[in-house]
Amino acid sequence: MAFTIVVATDQKRGIGSSQRLPWRLVEDMRWFREITVGKNPSRENVVIMGRRTWDSLPEKFRPLPHRKNIVITRYPEKCHAPHTVSGFSAALRLAYSLGGKVFVIGGGSIYAAALRHPECEELIVTEIDHDFACDCFFPDYSGFSKHCTLATAEENGLSFRLCVYRRGGGAAAPAA
């Protein structure tokens, strides 16, 4: 089995500030939904996230609709997600049993575990051409190479692009 990481980063691989996204990009959110829901909403894909990422979602969007949501947490009794597990390996086992494509959507420590996992074959990265004051960063992904750019956009004075990286040789991924 294989899974994909979906992330948006600034120029220094920043992904968050005070447990929130430091940007609001409607087009990026549209891309995220389109990727994680897929073309057949009747066959739900799976999203794996940490508890802080779950908590950062507005309540009206919890669980993320048209996707099976798995939350990794040390305290499942305190998290009211549809599926809770205590570690990344358990999340993957559950995700594979639920069917559909599997996407890891954050946060920092979950991304780090996912990048180390041999079944992580692809990253879909929104690269934002700006440096935000982030306190959470996406780990180094120099073991992946850029495969293609799917789309580009500009919004709120920010230019950004949607890129696909694949595990293996070729061009190096951006370093912080």
Shape: globular
Strand order of the largest sheet: 5-4-3-6-1-7-10-9
Give a count of the beta strands, DSSP E runs of length 2 or more. Answer: 10
Give helix and strand order, one letter per element, not per position: EEHEHEEHEHEEEE
The helix tally amounts to 4
Rounded mean pLDDT is: 93
CATH topology name, in short, is Dihydrofolate Reductase, subunit A
Helical fraction:
10-25%
Instruction: Estimate nothing, just give the exact number of structural domains.
Output: 1
CATH architecture: 3-Layer(aba) Sandwich
- Helix and strand content put the structural class at alpha/beta
Biggest sheet overview: 8 strands, mixed
Strand content: 25-35%
Uncertain stretches of 5 or more adjacent residues: none
End-to-end Cα distance? 30 Å
Task: Tell me the name of the CATH homologous superfamily.
Answer: Dihydrofolate Reductase, subunit A
In CATH's first tier, which class applies?
A: Alpha Beta
